[in-house]
């Protein structure tokens, strides 16, 4: 039974999928401190949060069973991604579910700041009938600058056109074609700051975007510009904004997010007559909360059940067509790795993976992760497809991927070479129609082996009688041979024998095998 801890008031309707799952037990808690989470997290396989819970290295360190942290929303700045990756914990988010909610809040904020609705409301309910102070501006014919043209920024740009606004956009990944399709003119941050009547930001908070709008940008702005931030606190320099308003450059601002949340009681935005504030409500609609909770629940179930998933934040996304093409090979790739990992002595210095045939048509990176995971699994605990490449890198292990279009006798071939300072071992596998996964090459020897169960890999000199000696020794010790294959390059030269056995060969039997004078090596492998 998997235990899932759900924090931060995530929608019950959205996580119904988890309640309904027969293999999942859900517990809901709110407002736990870091210490309280550290004390209980070892019981859980999955943790679901919004932005309120900070998922720190300490929490993940204590989460000995933790497989996945699910963020019911977009921003993962409350989750220590590096710590998760190191521990092989998958971090997933729900990037699409709250786009429209946040886009619509952006317009609510834009209208609020254009017409001073919150300020007018406050006076009206206070008993004043003040129609002179609140003369606003229209959006029509105004220039809107959108910094960050991802999901939310693009939706904002589309709707701004309906208000009759001219839209200028900046995003390092916005192509001219896409900008043209959206009816957006491209500009630099400074050009947009100089030209816009309204500026809205929709980027993540990164080292590059921190204080992207600060004193120098405010100094470029038109008198009367208005600023909206429904993305992340810190993208706009809060103190520089207050100065720009007080200097008469900026006419007003609307902020849903703060550099520190919740802001201190004496934060200059609170009670400022020209600044509208909300408590991080961008995603707070019934629809968005249901959407993100459904998305994250589906992914959590996939991860807990070892099924493929798509929205991992600490792994590159895998497009559906790539996943479809590679998925049948994941198990084979891992088995090739597990096989090789058990056949090598001494530290591995390089892994060379060669893909040939149809597999060369897609990005094979996800499959490489399975291979590397399999190789490392023999040496390291807790290795999985999230941390496999990271662990390989931190151990100075070079992973080289090659592709060759000719697959020789096979439609597809995955060939893996493991190199240490002393030796080199090659293993190749394929999927054979009607037969499934097969290992088809060990070093220079062609073989045909199903990669599962117990195997004995024996290196020997090609001498008459050796097969009988091995068979007798195993038989005398109750180890039944299921299949046997022998390969050699030249008569009387070095050769290999691969046996599949119905049970593990005991260590003492293996030791006696190795003492046979014709044998150079014997290893028990479990796949
Ligand atoms: N207020 C809320 O409750 C709320 C709700 C949802 C999302 N958000 C936040 O809104 C932001 C945008 O969300 P999204 O779903 O559109 O994300 P997204 O990933 O689709 O878009 C972000 C865009 O920012 C661009 N970008 C990155 N660095 C940039 C830079 N230096 N200059 C300009 N553009 C840059 C990226 O290329 C990307 O296109 C995120 O920070 C997210 O956390 C806030
Ligand atoms: O990044 C997000 O998705 C938003 O900031 C929403 O955060 P929330 O789920 O805490 O409302």
Automatic annotation (TrEMBL):
It catalyses: (2R)-3-phosphoglycerate + NAD(+) = 3-phosphooxypyruvate + NADH + H(+); (R)-2-hydroxyglutarate + NAD(+) = 2-oxoglutarate + NADH + H(+). GO terms for biological process: L-serine biosynthetic process. Its EC number is 1.1.1.95. It is an enzyme of class 1 (oxidoreductase). The keyword NAD applies. Coiled coil: none annotated. Keywords: Amino-acid biosynthesis, NAD, Oxidoreductase, Serine biosynthesis. Pathway: Amino-acid biosynthesis; L-serine biosynthesis; L-serine from 3-phospho-D-glycerate: step 1/3. It comes from the Bacteria. GO terms for molecular function: NAD binding; phosphoglycerate dehydrogenase activity. Pfam families: 2-Hacid_dh, 2-Hacid_dh_C, ACT, PGDH_inter. The keyword Amino-acid biosynthesis applies. InterPro entries: ACT-like_dom_sf, ACT_dom, ASB_dom_sf, D-2-hydroxyacid_DH, D-isomer_2_OHA_DH_cat_dom, D-isomer_DH_CS, D-isomer_DH_CS1, D-isomer_DH_NAD-bd. SUPFAM superfamilies: ACT-like (SSF55021), Formate/glycerate dehydrogenase catalytic domain-like (SSF52283), NAD(P)-binding Rossmann-fold domains (SSF51735), Serine metabolism enzymes domain (SSF143548). Residues 455-527 form the ACT domain. Catalyzes the reversible oxidation of 3-phospho-D-glycerate to 3-phosphonooxypyruvate, the first step of the phosphorylated L-serine biosynthesis pathway. Also catalyzes the reversible oxidation of 2-hydroxyglutarate to 2-oxoglutarate. Belongs to the D-isomer specific 2-hydroxyacid dehydrogenase family. This is D-3-phosphoglycerate dehydrogenase. It comes from Paenibacillus elgii.
